[in-house]
């Protein structure tokens, strides 16, 4: 006998009460449930509304299941089959089951359930569309709750249904799947919370506790922020900032620059920065990682790290990190504090950057004045040098850096030039005493090197390697002058650097003036003054004191002209052999060269001929 034969369709007594299967029921429009749904969403939130409707459906399904269990039905499958019929009889939907799998344990109890089917004409889907329009997710919460409650009660095992597609989302039917919890393999966890009724008072208590915790976190965070701001306003450095943070919260902290070099730290020994950490931090700061410029957590297996970048004008200038030993938990307050630490660090670095760049601009303008000769007196140059903490009494080199930016275009060119000069400025910061300026689209550097430091060749080669690595798409070349003693000769040194720069090429990107032969200078320079400048460096005081050394110059020229033959030179100069030998020894001492070396004699002979042609000296 079918369910419809057993249960009367409807019975109304004289009191206006309606009974269905001996149970009083009420009749109402499905639109009422649509309105109820909207009011619940507006008043208690969508999440609580969903839980309310699922639990409402669950209780309906559970109650119908209890009634079915009191009837004399032959099998579990038969009882379960009645669920869709009752569902449909209530006017909720038309249900069609397409698959049912039941697995029993050794004592005949249901262990696993898998059921699938369709709901069509769902009242919930219709009312949702009426109230809100088409949805982007399933909305039949009472249907899901009803099926879950009915099956769970019958099977004596929690069975959770999930709507996989919904008419409200534009599908032809609502497709459902029901399974016992283990068979969902963890994919139903987010839905389970809707089946448990947490009183709104308890939820409000939880919310209050969270708000109280947030308030305490904010108070602590603002207090720390105020202290860090005070540190900044007092002119303290990054080390003071890390010390203040460690003092406040007891968490080890470190600050690194963009190249991952340590700037400041507190709360741990420097032993942490062993080679294994260097390798690790290179991985966690991988620039290809999309999270590179976001706050993130990481672990090296021993310690955990909470990392936030220090951003200035959309560029990353470094990183702030909290270090957690072992499995120590990371709190929400830690996130809030570290964000403010990074903010304070960005202000500090921006101030340092602005000050540094302003000083470097002054230095660059000062260097151009020196090279142009705009500062007339030596005293004025030294006084202004003191203002920018540069001792111009020390010897120096002038280097000219030329670049070819393959990303052509005036806007890119200006941007690249600014980036390059900033890179070079920061490279030399705290390394050497260097002035950096710009002339004719090139960088000009005045470099002072102590005797115990690297040679100018080594310094420029390392710089060249650094900027080539930083800007692999560009080509760089450097020309370097000889070591110059007097600051008033800066223009001459600049011309030397420009001359040798012209002699650089793809295979030899850096040249130093003292290493260039006179023949090379004659070949690459139309300016004979450059050759004369070379003569000063080669001949030294023989040339600079030429009025006092007329006889020595004449002896040098005659000796070279005669191919180093002492007999011929003695006769030409009308000197004794001992007198000639004395002059040759004196010349070699003053030149610091062996006059019997062909390469040496060739260059000196060429220099003497150029000087004679320019009437700088008289050889006959």
Describe the structure.
It is a single chain. The chain has 620 residues and is of the alpha+beta class. 51% of the residues lie in helices and 18% in strands. It has 22 helices and 17 strands. Strand 11 (303-312) and strand 12 (315-325) form a beta hairpin. The chain is rod-shaped, with a radius of gyration of 45 Å. The relative contact order is 0.04. The model is unreliable at 1-9 (pLDDT under 50).
Give the count of helical stretches: 22
Portion in strands? 15-25%
Considering DSSP H and I runs of 4 or more, what fraction of the residues is helical?
40-55%
Mean pLDDT: 80
Layout of secondary structure:
Layout: H1 3-6, E1 11-12, E2 18-20, E3 23-25, H2 30-44, H3 46-69, H4 76-89, E4 94-104, E5 110-120, H5 123-132, H6 141-155, E6 159-165, E7 174-180, H7 189-192, H8 200-233, H9 238-249, E8 253-257, E9 262-266, H10 275-284, E10 296-299, E11 303-312, E12 315-325, H11 332-372, H12 378-387, E13 397-405, H13 410-428, E14 433-439, E15 442-448, H14 456-470, E16 474-480, H15 490-502, E17 510-512, H16 518-524, H17 528-539, H18 541-544, H19 550-561, H20 566-573, H21 577-591, H22 598-613
Parallel strand pairs: 16-17
Antiparallel strand pairs: 1-2, 2-3, 4-5, 5-7, 6-7, 8-9, 8-12, 10-11, 11-12, 13-15, 13-16, 14-15
Helix pairs in contact: 2-3, 2-5, 3-4, 3-6, 4-6, 8-9, 8-11, 17-22, 19-21
